[in-house]
Write a structure and sequence with these properties.
There is one protein chain. The protein is α/β, with parallel strands linked by helices. Helices cover 28% and strands 24% of the residues. The protein contains 11 helices and 22 strands. The relative contact order is 0.18.
């Protein structure tokens, strides 16, 4: 069973719309290399579309009714949007849920050191990465530093044309005979992923003069002290903008597409849909890459608590209504899948792989080996989705994440399924997943956005 390449059927009008969506997506990637930056962009887009801050509604003792649009931000690193439908909330919601964190390197709390008149910042990698992919690249630092007085300093260095960039150094090939015999998982160790930040000593200083110069620069530019690293969240990411990829410009290459490609298309769909019978919801969460833990991850009770507040403002709250709402909801866990790469064909089952250009990807189950750690969606739910996508002429495909015993992965789907709702993984196929620069198909991005819109509008019939 082979799915048709969507490019073959596009009209000129559709190509124009496709390019418009992908141009705006590249801008989203460039402006959102951290969860905080993605949240800021999502809120700006939501407010422009008429969404109000739920916290403001609550503070004013306001009430919500059908058609009202609200959003709620959690610790500046995750956001949820709701548009109230005509039906009572306890009858369920149509939910799109993606994550906005991506693999990277985080700067440690006591990071600055000097060795042989070179200054470094010590890092701890975040999420699943091939560590050797992160050396010799131009890197940027994004994040915040919160000082003792509580004031917040935004940091972004390495993205502007005149900015300096940073680098994890590598051993030259001429001296690497012994290192080249190491396993790929060991050729670069986690504690070796320190970024080079300086080599110029501060005049008048004898001990650690280069590190002292870095401290002076931080003081002069940001008015922060070395101790302020203790209350900082600084992320090291690839420097540079997302770009069209290929001579035909049919693809996008950029950092953080897992899972911001699904977050952006989900957000676009959420903002486009209007006047639905059932409440619609878009979740953009943090910490998926490290197990959805913490107060901003999907395992947190924040979503449940926010939904309780929504029910209260809508005059519909009871514990039973909250439970019924969650159980009766239907969700697409908007997350990426692995695109088939013919260079590494042995890792895939070709009959059950995702291919560029063939539309949005459904993974009935993820997990590893014997479906361990997966959400295994019901066949009835998949059949319902097939029906609405076929009617709307949305290109889609089904896939598994590689061969059965090769590896595996997970999403937030199994966490939401704990409420008893129907959930299935659905997103965009990605090449180079978890690498500093990932690749997606513009056609798949376009079809994902279309599919998410139809899901929100039609999944309840």
């Amino acid at each position: 069973m082979e799915r048709r390449n969507a490019w073959k059927d596009y009209s000129k009008k559709e190509i124009k719309e496709l390019e418009k969506i992908n141009a705006s997506y590249r801008q989203f990637l460039d402006g959102g290399k951290t969860e905080r930056e993605c949240t800021i962009q999502a809120v700006a887009m939501a407010e422009q579309a008429g969404y109000r801050n739920l916290a403001d509604v609550i503070a004013k003792g306001g009430k919500l009714k059908s058609g009202d649009k609200v959003y709620s931000v959690n610790m500046k690193k995750s956001v949820v949007l709701f548009q109230l439908g005509k039906k009572p909330l306890e009858e369920g919601m149509a939910i799109l849920g993606a994550h906005i964190d991506s693999p990277r390197m985080d700067i440690k709390q006591n990071p600055l050191y000097e060795d042989t008149e070179l200054a470094y910042l010590d890092t701890h990698y975040y999420g699943g990465i091939k560590k050797y992919q992160w050396v010799t690249l131009p890197l940027a630092i994004h994040g915040v530093i919160v000082k003792n007085d509580g004031s917040l300093v935004n940091v972004c260095v390495g993205e502007e044309e005149n900015d300096p960039v940073f680098c994890v150094t590598d051993l030259l090939i001429h001296l690497s005979a012994e290192r080249m015999d190491k396993k790929a998982s060991k050729v670069i160790e986690g504690e070796d992923l320190d970024i080079l930040v300086g080599s110029q000593p501060l005049k008048g200083e004898e001990k650690d003069a280069v590190a002292q110069n870095i401290i002076k620069i931080l003081k002069d530019k940001y008015d922060v002290e070395e101790e302020d690293f203790m209350s900082a969240e600084l992320e090291v990411v690839p420097a540079g903008k997302a770009r069209d990829c290929g001579l035909d410009a049919s693809m996008i290459m950029g950092y953080g597409q897992d899972d911001r490609v699904c977050a952006y298309t989900s957000l676009l769909a959420m903002l486009e849909v209007e006047n639905t019978d059932y409440t619609t919801c878009c979740l953009l969460v943090d910490k998926e890459e490290i197990g959805s833990v913490g107060a901003t991850g999907m395992r947190s009770l924040n979503f449940e608590n926010t939904l309780a507040e929504l029910l209260h403002c809508a005059g519909q709250y009871s514990d039973l209504a909250l439970r019924r709402c969650l159980q009766n909801s239907k969700m697409l866990s908007s997350d990426v899948s692995a695109a088939f790469d013919p260079t590494y064909a042995s890792a895939y089952d070709k009959k059950n792989a995702a291919y560029f250009g063939r539309g949005m990807v459904f993974n009935k189950y993820t997990g590893s080996r014997g479906k361990s750690g997966s959400n295994d969606a019901n066949a009835e739910f998949m059949a319902q989705i097939r029906g609405i996508l076929k009617e709307a002429n949305v290109a889609y495909q089904t896939a598994e994440l590689g061969k059965v015993d090769v590896g595996g992965g997970g999403t937030i789907a199994y966490i939401m399924a704990l409420y008893g709702m129907d959930v299935i993984d659905c997103g965009v196929a990605v090449l180079n997943m978890h690498a500093p620069w990932e690749i997606t198909s513009k056609a798949d991005i376009y079809e994902a956005k279309k599919g998410y819109v139809i899901f929100l509008e039609k999944i309840f019939g």
